[in-house]
Amino acid sequence: VLHLLKTVEDSLQGTGNTIVELLLDEQTFSPDETDKLAELKVVGFKKIELVAATAEEMIQAAFEDGDSGIAHLEEIAAEVSSDLRLGKVKIAMDNYIEFVDGVEWLVTVLSNAERAFAARMAESSMESDRQALLERISEQMAAVKAAQESEDWVLLADLLEYEYPEILADARTLIKSIM
Fold this sequence. Notes:
Blueprint: H1 2-12, E1 17-24, E2 27-29, H2 34-39, E3 48-54, H3 55-64, H4 66-85, H5 89-111, H6 113-122, H7 126-149, H8 153-178
Antiparallel strand pairs: 1-2, 1-3
Helix pairs in contact: 3-6, 4-5, 4-8, 5-7, 7-8
């Protein structure tokens, strides 16, 4: 299966498309799961589908998922904050990693918005709003990481509980206005 994936990816070069998902007998795989894919044989499946998309299509799909992604980030931030306040540092740090990954997803989506929505963004103040939001996220993530590294659990809980809800609400509003 991995050889098939590489062959198709090679044939897509220059088209702007990339494989984003593999469906093998209705089981979903990411093209990044190379170890798993290397073990699988094409003849072992009745149906093989490769889903391709352009960067713009992937960004648009991420924007469409933006509301649920932000809602998930809000939940994780609240859980981490609550766990830290209760002294459950290990549990909080497990969820903290998921929070950081989620914020990185949000930054990636917002950073690439212009690729998929250039016309809409040029017609309004959305670009300046996007840049200001990215700057706020960057500043708060620096504060969050500093609090985590210095093991200042109260500050980390405060940042997640009091700073991030506004940032995430602004991100939700911006994504809806861009869509």
